[in-house]
Structures are given as C-alpha cells and as structure tokens.
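Researcher: Here's the sequence for the chain we discussed earlier.
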Amino acid sequence: MFAFGHVFNRQSFLFLLDLEIKRARRYQNYLSLLSLTLGHLNPPFKNPNISLKTLVNLLKDELRETDVVGQSEIANRLLVMLPHADMAGAHKVRERLGHILQDYGFGAKGLTIEIGEVCFPTHATNIDDLLRMAGSNPPFPNPQ
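Model: Thanks. This is the structure I predict for it:
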C-alpha cells in the first residue's frame, strides 16, 4: 500500500529494505539510506501533510527509478533507499536534495528538513543497525 501515491508504508518499505540488504550482501554491493526529517520553524504549521506531499513530489523528480521512498516509524520522517549507492553517491544525493530544498524555500515557509545518510556495509551490517544509524546520523544543514 502506498501513502501519498509514491511512498511505501513502513511494513512494505522494511520488507524491500531487507531484500535489498540481502542482495547487497550476496553480491557485495553498497546500499545507502537517507533519512529526511521534517521540522517546523514556526509552530504551529497548518498542515504537515501538505509539506510531506510537497517533499515526496520533489523526491520523485530527483531520485532514480530504482530508489525507494518509505515511511519511517516517526510521523515526520521519510526514508530513501539508494541501492548500489556507496557513501560518495549517497553524499552527492544528499547535497543535491539539500540544494533543491533550499531553492524550493522550505525555510522561508517555516519548515526545516534534516537529511541524514548511512551506508551498508560501511556503517552497519544489518537492517536494525542501519535504521538506528539513519535516525542518529548528523543532519545536513537546514535549508533556509
């Protein structure tokens, strides 16, 4: 089941992430995970779902067809799985998304987005550690 039409729900995303980790382990490939956390500069923001829909549409335009966007256990966080992307590749995507979000003006609209990145097997060798690291990774500077 999809949320917003382009995002896998948590259970489906974890299933796909598990398959991709097994594939990466077997074929000795990298897999990176981005964590995008939506925050508010000006509480109260009227409708966070509009912000998430906008973010999903921006992601859809910028990511590869093989990249997978999914819901996190945290309501205002999205996860992006980047198969075959090492840390350098994930960092390029992270920087590009940061610039796009800045150009879009999320900061001017009272919103911030923090982007964290983690790579399998560089930072973690199983799904639990990968998800834990994605949530605790130092964020990309907020777009203003």
